[in-house]
Structure formats: C-alpha cells, structure tokens
Amino acid sequence: QVKISSIEGDTVAVYFSASWCPPCQRFTPKLIEAYKELTSHGKSFEVIFVSGDQDEEAFNAYFAKMPWLAVPFSDSEGRKSLDERFEVNGIPHLVFLDAKTGEVLTDEGVEFVSEYGIEAYPFTAERIDELKEQEKAAKDNQTIHSVLGTPNRNYVISNTGEKVPIVDLEGKYVGICFVVNGYPPVVEFTPVLAKIYAKLKEVGEKFEVVAVSLDSDEESFNNSFSSMPWLAIPQGDKMCQKLVSYFELSDLPTLVLIGPDGKTLSSNIADIINEHGLDAWEGFPFNAEKLEILAEKAKAKAAAQTLESLLVTGDIDFVIGKDGAKVPVAELVGKTVLLYFSAKWCGPCRAFLPTLVDVYNKVKEKNSDFEIVFISSDRDQSSFDDFFSGMPWLAVPLEDDRKAYLKKKFKIRGIPSLVAIGPDGKTVNTDAKTSLAVHGADAFPFTSERIQELEKKIDEMAKGWPEKVKHELHEHELVLIRRPRPYGCDGCEEMGTSWSYNCAECDFDLHTKCALGEEKKGDEVNGQDAAAEAAAPAGYVCEGDVCRKA
C-alpha cells in the first residue's frame, strides 16, 4: 500500500485499461517502455492503473506485468468515480496530471505516447506544440537520412542481414513500404511490387524500396522480410513507429515515394500499383505526365476488353461447373455475365445468396444469354465446395491466379459484390448488387440505360405516394424524399435507392413498399445474424450487408 501523499512525481498519469481489451494489450507495452526509460533517466513521473477488468484474478494477472501503482480492484466505487470524473468512454485512456496542482495536462495521453514516446515528457500542451513545430521543420528540411536514420543508426538492412549505408540511397527514388506479416492486403500487394521493383532495376532506374515493419516480434518480421528483395529498417527500431505518425499512416498497403532530393513526392502510390498492376512500372516516377500516360493506356485497355481478356490466362481458358466440370470461357462469349465476389465466411454473402439464386432463376427462364461466375474469397477447399454447392451457376477454381487479378481490376473492397459484363465483353455495371437488390430480375441486363428506365418508372409511381406517413416501426412522422445514393432500410434491412420514407432527426429510413405496407419484414437471415455463424478472416470487418477490407 502506497499513501497518495507519498507518491513522487511532477507528472502523474492515470491509466484506464483492462486485460480483455486488445488495444490495451497493444498499448500497455509501449507505456511500460516509456515509463522505464523516463524513470531510468531520473524523470519525476508516476502511473496509476485504473482497471476495467471483470474480476480480481484478471486484474492481478494484468497488474503483475506493470511496474507502476494501481487503484485497488476492491475499490469499485473509487474506480467508477475516476471513470466518471475523466469521462472515460473507451479504453485504453491515459490522462496526465500535474501532481502539484491536480490540473489535467492532457487526456490524449495514448496518442501522445504512441506518437512521441518519452519525447512528449512532461506531456504538457506546450511540449506537444513544440514537438509538432519540430515535425513541421523536419518535413520542410526532410532528407533521406532524416526519414530513415537515427542518431545511433545510419544504415538499413537487407534480408541477408547486411548493413546498407543510408548514404547509398542518396539521389535515388525510394519507396517507403509499410508492412505487416500475414495481413491479406499486404500479402497480395507485395508480389506485385516485387515484380515492378525487378522491372525498374532491369531498365536501370534509380529506385529502391525500404520496408517499415509494424510487426511486434522478430519472427513475424523475418517471415515477411525473407521474401522481399529490397531493404528494411531493423525490426523493433523506434523509427518504424515514428514514421507511422510522420506520414500519417491510415491504410495498408501504403508505399510512400521519396524523390532523389529526399523530399516526399507522394504519400501513397500503392493505389496506383493496385489499379494498374505490373503495368504501373511504366508510370514511374509517377508524376502527372506519366500518370496521364497510364490513364490513357488503361482507357485503351478497357475499350479493348473482352470476356476472354478477363477470364483467360495462358492455357487456363475455362471456368468450372458442378463436380469440377470444365466449361470453356468461349461458351460464355456473347452473354451478360455477372462476376460474383463472395465467400462462405461472410455473413452478408450468405444472406444475399438466396436473393441472387432467385433472380438468377427468373432471368434464366426468359434469357438464356445470361450467366454468373462465382469468384471466392474462401480460405479452404471445403468451404468453397460447401458454398458453391448451393449455387446453380459457374465458378473460377479456388486456387486460381485470376481471382487476385479480377479483384484488383474491379477494385473489390467489400463482399458480396457483383460486376456486370455485357455481351460485347465490356463492363456495364460495377455495382450490379445494388441494382439487383433494388430491382430484382427486372434489372437485367444491368446497364445504366436499363437502371435509368426503371428509376423513371419509380419516379412516376412516386407521384401517387403520400408525402408523409406514420409507421409502427418509428415514433415520428416519416417524409417521402428522393435519395441520391443507396441507403439501408430500417424495416426489411435491405438496400434501397431512389425514394424512401425518412426521419431526418433519427436518420431512419423505410423502403416505400415497407412504409406503405406492400411488403412485411421478411424472416430471412440478415447479415448480422448470419455473421455470427463464422468469423471474418484477418483484414476484413463485416458491417451491415457487406464485409470490407479493414
């Protein structure tokens, strides 16, 4: 027991955390490291842990790893009072106090420690402003050394462990590539970048890549770095975390491009590479002139697109039916083809499948020149086989390189997704799922002209609908409005477009058919319920009627 009056420290941090909280588990080691460094340097600093654990056993196990003090777990009233006093709405939460006056220095301690570490001490607003000014000055005077090096390290490393002096990178274009071992978007991006890297080296361009690993352990770092032909900042180097803040990292993959003068040319060229694939090397060094050339080439490619150019690769000129039967792509030429991006693990995909099967059967009854090709994001053959068994259409095999190409080409960020290819092989609709969900089989052949025709019919019908309605699902009056973008119906929980009955105050919407009683809420499995049946893999998050890359 430590008397509060005897706590030493000009600055005291109150740390709200819990052992069950993954973000807390990631942040606590950073705070421990900062605490040990500050105390070892004689800084006047203390931390008080306020637990959010459910039981004392969990509290004891978590607190045992911490080198500081804690409010006793038994003092539930004291912990609750602190939660309320500092308005703790989420954890980890770190409040810095002036120990002499009790004044709150900042309640953004988690951000400050994550971004600046011990450099933020004593965690006052003045010190943070000072650091931001230093950051701005560093960016104004940026060099390749200030980006990659530290006072104690003037080199980066190869995957064989060789130390490569940073001075060797002067005068080159340098890509700063943020990586995480096993993270799907990074795993998909790395081989493409490696081919572009090799091509640029082959044609003599002065280009290098330096990986910045966000892995927390050396084994994960080594697993990913061993397959990379470029350089890296050593694993665990504090510069890795600093660069996250410095370049305001918000997405993965991210490839920052530094010019020969050491200045940042682009905060992220990964999107360009994802869009153009291996052809992106022709856009190097990705200035406006070269990007215009890439765009023109992409337009020409799109104009020349055929179904075969999408689905035929080398000797692989087929898709599969049931029992693995090979169906030549040539048999699909001249048809309207929907590319169906989906997976069994995705709850919204399982919820959408019965609707798609119903539409497929209705369209096929009247139009033989129609087909769907399933492109799976499943992780194993048994899941693929089980999900595909409920589909009356064709598929690209699970282990097939065409899948990655098609996902990149059509920028598939979430599933389920439907892309419509017309009889001439050109793309006619990259969001056929919304068209189909709203208009059903009537949306065929999914062209913009057909959708506009259907929208006009709905607009004519809207003239006969009441301007306002009262509905049992909502307490306020609902107003008929024209919707410029798709929305989710709070009644049947399906997508809608064009018109809705809306409560602006509550952000509540009903399809017109739901609001007017033309259709009662179905008992189909919705995305949220279905999602409970299987977990999304790393790199994805399922919300509403779609699973997206996180």
TrEMBL record:
Ranges for domain Thioredoxin: 1-133, 146-290, 296-463
Keyword annotations: NAD, Oxidoreductase, Repeat
Top EC class of this enzyme: oxidoreductase
Alphabetical list of Pfam families matching this protein: C1_2 (PF03107), Thioredoxin_8 (PF13905)
Record's keyword annotation contains Isomerase: no
Origin superkingdom: Eukaryota
Catalysed reactions, as listed in the record: [protein]-dithiol + NAD(+) = [protein]-disulfide + NADH + H(+); [protein]-dithiol + NADP(+) = [protein]-disulfide + NADPH + H(+)
Molecular functions (GO terms): thioredoxin-disulfide reductase (NADPH) activity
Enzyme Commission no: 1.8.1.8
Keyword Repeat listed: yes
UniProt similarity note: Belongs to the nucleoredoxin family.
Protein name: protein-disulfide reductase
UniProt source species: Triticum aestivum
